[in-house]
Amino acid sequence: MASQEQLSAIKGAKLLMVGAGGIGCELLKTLALSGFQDIHIVARDAVLRFRPNISITPYHVNVKESRFNVDFFTEFDVVLNGLDNLDARRHVNRLCLAADVPLVESGTTGFLGQVAVHLKGKTECYECQPKPAPKTYPVFTITSTPSKFVHCIVWANDLLFAKLFGDKNQENDLNVRYTDTAN
Questions:
Q1: What is the spatial distance between Cα 131 and Cα 109, in angstroms, rounded to a whole number?
Q2: SS3 for 73?
Q3: For site-directed labelling of 154, which of 4, 17, 55, 143 has its Cα 20 to 30 A away?
Q4: How many angstroms separate the CA atoms of 62 and 40, rounded?
């Protein structure tokens, strides 16, 4: 159980969340249910307000826009990442280092998840250990927000080709249904 001092710190904290997809939506729910009351979210996804005593300020844009600079990041007590984009994760890491704001970094690789806390001068930063280039890509990225040429190739090869020329009963994330009246 948290002490009164800890509860006051939670209620008074100003948080910045980056990303409201698979990890971010669960993180937002957990933060809201834990008592945090001032949450700002930079995400392209829709964010709904679900508790009247919580101030949720959404920014429906890319975190790499120039208005999200060091001065913006210094306004927050902690930054929480829920991004699946390696370049954006590096960008947020650099801004947190420059603003001297703690970063709670979370992400997934396939079905594996990881969380790390990065404190300037106390722990290694997100980029201190090289990250391997992904060999697979999140299905959400491939089907909903492809941002690189390789995403389109993976979509066509792994999802579209299999649906068009492979097993017609195969379920995949294209949300395309094949009905064969002969069977």
A1: 11
A2: helix
A3: 17
A4: 14
